[in-house]
């Protein structure tokens, strides 16, 4: 999953970014509320972690602008203000969940996964496409009940596809969701990885289809 983090405290931003990347999330970090809208226009993020005390445009105003524009990205708010009125205000402005500082990384990761699940109408902590399952807790794939072990790049691409199963993803979107910006990979690498995944998925009841002009889509056979 690709996450946008909006946090102006350098130490906390660096810690969250590093920790989530170690858990195989892909994180882009901005430290000013004015950068949030631009980032969301440029990338398709699965969730937004939003600090309320941002400079430029604070978290409340940022959230109100997003919802006024009918932007439906799941938003997890970070706040040090542990009061009922603050919680109610934030939820009424359009936040999906909030986390009080300080917090444990495990809780942050669990809440992010739950947000994305709910946004896709998924009841259980897993993503599925036909017989192919991705357990969001163990981060393991299985197909027809058997474990499916994958090299890192194949795992990253298949995860991007199953999170958006049934929806086409372009090469750029797959690169954005599956790899860190520092990898500096060309779009052609997506073709190579998809070719390998197609071979692995032969006869399993799930396939990767090319939709001309739109990209790749994961779907049951």
Write the layout of secondary structure elements.
Elements: E1 2-6, H1 10-22, E2 26-30, H2 34-42, E3 47-51, H3 59-68, E4 75-79, H4 84-92, E5 97-100, H5 105-119, E6 126-129, E7 132-135, E8 140-143, E9 146-148, H6 152-163, H7 171-178, H8 188-201, E10 206-211, E11 215-220
Parallel strand pairs: 1-2, 1-3, 3-4, 4-5
Antiparallel strand pairs: 6-7, 7-8, 8-9, 10-11
Domain Response regulatory: 2-116
GO biological process, one term: regulation of DNA-templated transcription
GO molecular function, one term: phosphorelay response regulator activity
Structural account:
This protein is α/β, with parallel strands linked by helices and 221 residues long. The chain has 2 domains: 2-120, Response regulator (Rossmann fold); 127-220, Arc Repressor Mutant, subunit A (Orthogonal Bundle), CATH 1.10.10. 41% of the residues lie in helices and 23% in strands. It has 8 helices and 11 strands. The chain has helices spanning 10-22, 34-42, 59-68, 84-92, 105-119, 152-163, 171-178, 188-201, and strands spanning 2-6, 26-30, 47-51, 75-79, 97-100, 126-129, 132-135, 140-143, 146-148, 206-211, 215-220. The strands form 3 sheets. It has a 5-stranded parallel β-sheet with strand order 2-1-3-4-5, with helices on both faces. Strand 7 (132-135) and strand 8 form a beta hairpin. Helix 6 packs across helix 7. It is elongated, with a radius of gyration of 18 Å. It starts with a strand and ends with a strand. The model has no long low-confidence stretch (mean pLDDT 86).
């Amino acid at each position: 999953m690709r996450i946008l983090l909006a946090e102006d405290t350098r130490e906390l931003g660096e810690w969250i970014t590093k920790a989530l990347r170690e858990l195989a999330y892909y994180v882009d970090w901005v430290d000013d509320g004015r950068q949030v809208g631009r980032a969301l226009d440029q990338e398709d993020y699965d969730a937004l972690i939003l600090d309320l005390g941002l400079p430029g445009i604070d978290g409340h105003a940022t959230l109100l602008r997003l919802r006024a524009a009918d932007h439906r990205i799941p938003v997890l708010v970070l706040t040090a203000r542990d009061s009922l009125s603050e919680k109610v205000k934030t939820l009424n402005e359009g936040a999906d969940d909030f986390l009080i500082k300080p917090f444990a990384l495990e809780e942050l990761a669990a809440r992010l996964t739950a947000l994305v699940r709910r946004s896709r109408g998924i009841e259980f902590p897993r993503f599925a496409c036909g017989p192919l399952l991705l357990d969001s807790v163990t981060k393991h794939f299985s197909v027809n009940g058997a474990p499916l072990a994958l090299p890192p790049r194949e795992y990253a691409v298949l995860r991007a596809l199953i999170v958006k199963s049934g929806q086409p993803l372009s090469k750029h979107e797959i690169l954005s969701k599956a790899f860190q910006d520092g990898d500096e990979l060309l779009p052609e690498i997506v073709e190579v990885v998809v070719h390998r995944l197609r071979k692995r998925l032969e006869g399993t009841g799930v396939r990767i289809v090319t939709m001309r002009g739109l990209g790749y889509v994961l779907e049951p056979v």
